[in-house]
Write a structure and sequence with these properties.
- The chain is globular and about 55 Å long.
- The longest helix is centred in the last third of the chain and has 25 residues.
- The chain has a single domain, classed as 4-Layer Sandwich (Phosphatase 2c, domain 1).
- The chain is an alpha+beta fold.
- It has ten helices and twelve strands.
- Helix 1 runs antiparallel to helix 3, helix 3 crosses helix 9 and helix 7 packs across helix 8.
Length: 347
């Protein structure tokens, strides 16, 4: 079951190899007029995504919805076909779910970029993404931007992603402390996002998982207003109740002024079958070449035509609001024209 932002969900996983439960909540906060965050929890496929859109309320919402729905559709309907398409080659052998995640995130970025190119009102929009998918006793994590993933350990919060932001680069290149970097003007500028350029670099890592493990995905509405120790303190209080953990973390952000949209997904590993699948250190997959972009555009046309033919009642989530359905319908109807127009302009 997929879940739009602004709602809480708790579903039991159904796979044999591993079982995960996801609990999510998204909130507009106390200052912003709308919510540009979007999340999906799909326990049946063990797929979890948080996106934080940018470009103004309308554009940011379009970007985050477009990205999440594109990734979800690839996993829900075209897993084997996308994996088998040689034109989408990522240049490295990975476990199937991890490979699919990289390809789906690239498609999501291309979808956002193409949509923004076709509509001047959406020009410049983009979105961060942090996405997790489980396979046997591994979790693949893909991210672009400054939304984060953590593992909740007994004595600390373990960061699993590294922000693509100016402040992170300052700390890395100039050996600045976190306090020094946070005092720099423009520290919130991110250096990488989905859809802001024609191509995208995607970071991926694979971690081994075990029953009882807890993971947190969040937008910077949480981690931008609380440090890791503070997040750990609140999360630890609700270690036995992941649903309440997600709610408490959102509440903490709002208690600190609610200056941004905030989204939190907590993933609980219930079962994990031991496998020979390896973990891997964080790595960056380079931007696509021209041939790969052409293949992605053809896939986007196919996804858009497929979605446009679906009646409204066939939407994946019965909880999706009418405004969300209209937004998605408009996107999928426009994306075909957008890709064609982009091709003609390129020629």
């Amino acid at each position: 079951m997929t879940t739009p932002s602004g709602q809480s969900t708790e579903n039991a996983g159904k796979t044999v190899a591993s079982v995960t439960n996801g609990y999510g909540r998204s909130d507009t906060g106390l200052v912003r007029p709308g919510n540009e965050d979007y999340l999906i929890i799909d326990d049946s496929r063990q797929l979890y995504i948080v996106c934080d859109g940018m470009g103004g309320h309308q554009a940011g919402e379009v970007a985050s919805v477009t990205a999440v729905e594109t990734i979800a559709r690839v996993f829900q309907r075209h897993e084997m076909e996308v994996l088998a398409d040689p034109r989408l080659n990522i240049g490295q052998v990975l476990p199937p779910k991890a490979e699919l995640l990289v390809k789906a995130v690239r498609l999501a970025s291309r979808a956002v970029f193409t949509r923004a190119t076709a509509d001047t009102a959406l020009s410049g929009m983009g979105t961060t993404v942090v996405a997790a998918v489980c396979e046997a006793d591994t979790m693949a994590l893909a991210h672009v931007g400054d939304s984060r993933a953590y593992r909740l350990c007994p004595r600390k919060l373990e960061p699993l992603t590294r922000d693509h932001s100016w402040v992170e680069e300052l700390q890395s290149s100039q050996r600045m402390t976190a306090e020094e970097a946070n005092s720099v003007v423009g520290k919130n500028v991110i250096t990488r996002a989905l859809g802001v350029r024609e191509t995208v670099e995607v970071d991926l890592r694979i971690v081994k998982i075990a029953p009882g493990d807890l993971f947190i995905l969040c937008s910077d509405g949480l981690c931008g207003f609380a440090d890791d120790d503070e997040i750990f303190e609140v999360a630890t209080k609700f270690r036995e109740d992941p649903r309440r953990m997600s709610e408490a973390l959102v509440q903490m952000a709002n208690d600190r002024g609610g200056a941004d949209n905030v989204t939190v997904v907590v993933i609980e590993v219930k079962e994990a079958k031991t496998s020979p699948l390896p973990g891997c250190d964080p790595q960056t997959f380079p931007a696509e070449n021209a041939e790969l972009l052409t293949a992605e555009d053809e896939w986007l046309i196919r996804l858009a035509e497929e979605a446009a033919q679906e009646p409204p009642e066939s939407a994946q989530s019965g909880n999706r609001s009418p405004s969300r359905r209209i937004l998605l319908a408009i996107f999928f109807l426009v994306i075909v024209i957008a890709v064609v127009v982009f091709w003609l302009q390129s020629d």
